[in-house]
Known about the structure:
Layout: H1 4-18, H2 34-40, E1 52-60, E2 63-70, H3 77-84, E3 93-96, E4 101-104, E5 120-121
Parallel strand pairs: 4-5
Antiparallel strand pairs: 1-2, 3-4
Protein name: DUF600 family protein
Organism: Segatella copri
Amino acid sequence: MGKQEELQEIYDLYQTFIQKERPAMEEDEADDWEGNIILALGVDYGTCNLCGNIKKCELSEGFLYIEAEELALITDFRVLLKNRFKDLEIYFATEDPENETYVTNDADGKYFHDLPDDHFIAPLDY
């Protein structure tokens, strides 16, 4: 959730990579690599963990929904976005069904209500 113009900027950047209007920002990375957006925003990710690929990105009024496949349970993509866009509220849910591990910062289940009852609640700033 956030300012519509900021959400639109993230969405538009994603679309430029997916529609191949712009090449991946790093050699050997896919068009849907989450790092493309971070680098295109001018953010230096340093040693942060960016090992996910965005599979779905949908924009609506005040909301940007991103679904990604991550190599790690939690990456730094959302942290880097939050650092760039201070007013952005990011709610996430990650799952590793193989190990039956589910993590979210949506303690009230407002956005992710399909998680198993025994999921782990992370602090909002996690």
